[in-house]
Amino acid sequence: MKPSSGKRVSKFAPLPAVGALLIAAGALAACSSGSPGGSATGKTIPQFTVGMDPAVSTLNYDKSNIGYQLGGLVMEPLLIASKSGKLVPWLAQSWKQTSPTTYVYNIRHGVKFSDGDTLTATDVAFSLNYYRRPGSLDAYNFPTTLKSITATGPYTVTVTLTKPDAAWAVVPAGDPMGIFEKKWYEEHQATFGQPGTGVMGTGPWVIRSYNGTTSAELTANPHYWRGPVNIKKVSVQFFSSETSEALAFRDGEIQLAFPIDNKAFASTAGIKLTAVPSYAVQGQFAMNVLQPPFNNVHVRLAVAYALNRADLINAWGGYADPVYQFLTAGLLENIASPAQVESVLKTVPVYTYNLAKAKAEMAQSPYKHGVSATISVENAGSYPNVSQAIQAELAKIGIHLKLDVMTIDAQTANMTSANRKGILTAFTYSGSVSRDPGEAFDFQMGQANISAGNWNTDNWAPPAVNNLINEGFLTTDNAKRLQIYGEIDKAYAEAVPLVPIFNEEATVALASGYTWPDFNGYYYDLGPWLLGVSRTG
Amino acid sequence: MTSADPVLLLGEQRLRAGARARRRVVSPVIWLAFAVMAGVLLMALFGALLAPQSPSAQHLAIVDAPPSGAHWLGTDALGRDVLSRVIAGARTAFFGPLVIAAASFVLGNLLGLLAGYRGGLADAVIMRWVDFMWSLPSLVILVVVAGTVGSSYWLAVAVLIVLTVPFDTRVIRGATLEQVPRPYVEAAKTLGVPRWKIMLFHIWPNVSPVAVANTCLVFAGSLVTLAGLEFLGLGLPPGIPDWGLMLSQNEALLFTNPLATIAPGAMIVLTAIAMNLIGDWLYELLTSRGAGR
Amino acid sequence: MSGRGLLVFVLRRLVVLALLLIVISFVTFSLLYISPGNLIDILLGARPHTAATVRALTREYHLNKPFLVQYWLWARQAVQLRFGTSIQTSLSVTGEIGARLPLTMFLGIYSFVLTMVFGIGFGVISALRRGGIVDRGLVGAAMLGLSTPAFVAGVALLYVFAIKVRWFPAYGVGTGFLNEFWHLTLPAVALAVTTVAYVSRHTRAAMIGTLDQDYVVFARARGLSSRRVLFTYLLRNALIPVITISGVILSSLIVGVVLVEVAFSLPGLGSLLVTAATTKDIPVLQGVVLLFAVVIVVANLLADVIYMVVDPRIRVGERAT
User: Fold this and answer.
1) Residue B184 falls within a domain, yes or no?
2) Domain span at B228
3) What tens digit of pLDDT does each residue of A522-532 get?
4) Complex prediction ipTM
C-alpha cells in the first residue's frame, strides 16, 4: 500500500504521483551496454505536448514526489532499466561490485549540464545524499542497508552497505534518482525545484519556463551527451482535472497523457489507450488481522470468496487484470520460466468468486448472523467506487461495511501508525518497489514492518513467513528462491491476511501518428522516458 | 398617435397592471410550481418506494450506459440506475433546506420582531450583527468548515441556519418597522397589552405574509447552496444519492451518458424555480403592493 | 453631506474594519486547532513521522508555545503577507495565492462587468416595457437565473458550447489577453447568470418605484424631454438600490467563482480553496480565507462610502432598510 505510481488523483486532490518503482534485476547481469531506449531514431518532432494531472508543484524530490515525470526529462540517473529489466549504463558508464558490501560506479566523462559545467562524481554523490536525507520524501527509495555514498575520485562514486543486499543493484536506476548539479543547487538553494527556478540536469531537455499552475516549456539540449534529441520542443500542460485533460487531448492540444481513470479518459478523449499488462501495481483488500471481525480466518476466507474481481475491475474503470496470488506469476517469472512458475503455483490455494462457499465460511465463524466493520477509503479517484462495490459484495454475506472516507494523508497516518490494532482494513493499491519477487512487496511483509511508519497493515507475520523472507534474500539460487516464494504465496493464501484483486495495466494515451514501443509498467525507469516516443510512418 | 414617450406609456401600463392584479387569478405556472414541489416532497418521503430500482444496486457489467429500456436515464460509473438515484436524491435536497428554512423562520422572526419593535440598543446590536453576516459568502464558509472540522451534511445545515437567520431578521425587521406606526399598535399599547403579546399576536400576523414568502426563498437558496457544497465533494459520503454530488461525479460521463449529469442538474433548477415562484406569488398575493409589481 | 461628516464616517468604518480583521484573523488562526485529528499528522502531510520531522515541525509552527503567543507570531507574519508553506506542495502560500490571483481577478471583473451591464440593462428595459412580452420574458428569465446555481450553469454551458457545439474552448486559460478573454467567457457567463438575474430584478423594482414618483411627472410636465428625464433622474435614483445590494453581489460572485473554477477546472483561488479544504491544507486555507475576508470587508466599506456620496438624503446613523 505504499502510495506509488501516479495513478490516484481526482480533480480535488493533488496527490503525490510517481513513487519508487525501482527495478531489481536480482540475479540479472548488471554490466552490459546494450542499446537503450532510443534517441534520435526516426523523424524529428518539432513540438510535442504532454499533459500532466495534477500540476507539478515542485521538482525538489526532497519535498514532494509529484515531479518525477517532468524531472525525469531534465535530470538523469546513473543507470536505467530497459523494457526487459536489464540494467543499462547511463550517466555511469560502468560499475563493479568490489566486495559483498561495496559498489564502485565510474561516471561517464565529458557529460555536461545544460549550463555548460561538467558532470563529476561530486554532483552524483551530492544528489543521491540529498535525496536520502532524513525527512525527505524521496528517502524511502533507499534501502536501510545503505551506509554511505561518497565521491572517491573526480569520476568515481563508491557506495557501501552495512551488509550484502542483492536489491541495491537497481536502486540508482529511475527518475527518482535524477542527478542535479551541486554548484547550481547551492546558488539556488532557497527556491530549488520551485516554479520559476526549476532544476539543473544533464538531460535531453532544458527548462525554459516553469509555471507551477499552468505549464512548463522545455527545449532540446543542443549539447546532450547522447547526440541530437528528436523532439525539439516539449510543452507540458498542467490540468487540475482529468476531464479537462481528456478534452484537451480530444482537441489535439496534447499528444500524450497518463490517464488515471482509464475508461472515463478514453471515452472523453475519444481515443483507444495503449495498455500493457503490468505487475507493478496490485489492487488488494488488506485486512487487519488484529481487529475483529478480520481476526477470524473464516471471515477472511469468506471475504476472499465473496469478492468478484471482474466487477471490481469494472468499478475501478477497467484496464486491469485479475490476480489470485499475492506474489503473482508475472513477478515470479523474473527468476524462473513460466513452466516452472506454474508448477510451483499449482500448490497454492486459489479462491474464485463463489457466494455459497463464502456464506459457508461465514457460518463457521462467530458471526453467523452478520457483523459490522469499518474500512478506510481514500477520497480520490476510483477508491470510493471500488470500496462501494466491495461494500455491496460483502453485504451479501452478512459483513456490513461502513466507509470512512479520508484524505490520503489521514489514511497514511492511520496505516502507518504505532497503534497497529487501530489500523483500518482497506482496499488499496500497492506499488511494488522492484521487479525482484523478494523485494517487490517486501515493505508490506514481515515482522519488521509491523511498526510505526511501516506498511505491514495486515499485521500478519508468523515466524515461518519471516524465516522464508530472510532466506529469500540470502540465496542467489533462483530455483531455491522460486520454491521459497511459492511457500510464501501458500502461507498468504492459507491465512488470507489480504486478498489480491487485480494488477493494473500500464496505460498511456498517445495521439495517432506517434508510437512508444518501449512503454511498460516501469516506464520511469527508462531514464528520460520521452526519448522513446517517435513518429510512425 | 402612439407615443414613444416612455413616461406616458408607463402611466397607461400602470392602470392596466392595477386592473390585472385585482383579478387574482392563479396562473398555470403557479399550479405547475406547486405540482413540482408536491412531486419533490413525495420523492423525498417515499423515494425508495417510488424508484424503479434500488438506488444503490450496482450493475458493474453495464457501467456508464446510455438510456435503455431497463434504465430510462442510463447508468452511472458503478452501473447504478440514474433515474432511481435522481428520485432518491430528493431526500437530501428537501430535508436539509426544510430544517434550515424552519429554523431560520423561527429565529429570524423573533429577532426581527425584537429589533423592529423594541428599537434602541437591541435593534442596534442586532442590526450590526445582521449587516456583518448578511454579505458573507455562505458557501465559502461551508467549505472552510468542511475543510477544518470535517464534512458532514447536518453540520452544513447547522452552519447554514446560522448564516441564514440574519437574512430573515432583516426582512422581518423591515416589515415590523412598517407596522409599528400603525394605529392598532398604538391602541394595543394604550390598552396595556404586554410588549411580547403585541409583537407576537398583533404585529406578527400582519408581518407573516412576508415571513412565509421569504421562507420559500430561503428554502430555494439553501437547496442551491447545499447542492453546491455536495458538488464540491464536501458534505456527503460518496455513496449517498444527491443531486449536487451526482452532478460532479457524473461529469466524467458527459460523453457516454450525459443524462446522468443533466437529470440531477435539471432537478436542482426545477425545484429552486418552483420554490422561488411560489415565494414570489405568495408575497404578491398577501401584500397590498401586488399592484405595483 | 459635508466633507467632514463623510471623513468621520469613513474613519469610523475603518476602525470597525480593523477590529473585524482582527476577529477574522483570530478565527482563521484557530482553524488549525478546530480540526479534529492529530495536529502533527495533519501538518506532516505526506512526510514521514520521525523524531526529526516532528521536531522541525514543532519549531516551524511554534507548537510548544501558548496559544495566544502562537496567534501573535502567526498574525505578525500574516500582516507581512507570509502565511507559511502549503502542506501539500511545500510552496509558500503567498506564492500559491499570487500565482492564481490574476486568473480569479480576471474572472471576477469580467463577471462583474457582465452583471452590471446586463443586470441593469435588462432591469431598465423590463421596467420601461412593464407588462409587455419583453418584460414578462425577462422576468421569467430572471427567475430561471436566480434558480440556476453557478455550477449547474457551468456544467450546462460546458456541455452545450464547449462539447456539443464547439464555439468556446472547454479547458485551460489561454495565453495573452484576448485568448484568456475567450477562454474565460463561458465561466464568466455561468458566474453571472445568478447575479444578472438578481440585479435586474432589483433594478426593475427600483425603476418602477421611481417612475411612480411625483417628481418624474413634474419633470415631464415642465417640458423636459423624456430621454433627459430617464437618464438624469430615473437611472440615478434607480441605481442606488443596486449599491445597497452590492455586498450580496460580491459574495454571490465569490461563491460563484469557487463553483465555476471547479466546474471548468480553472487553476484559480476558488479551486485552491476547495483543494485545500479537501486535503486539509490548513495554511493555504488560512491564507485564502483571510484574503477573501479582507476583500469583502473593504468592498463593503467602499460600497457604503459610494452610497453616502451618491445619495445625499441619507445621513450617518440612519439606515434605509
Assistant:
1) yes
2) 93-241+264-292
3) 888 898 999 99
4) 0.85
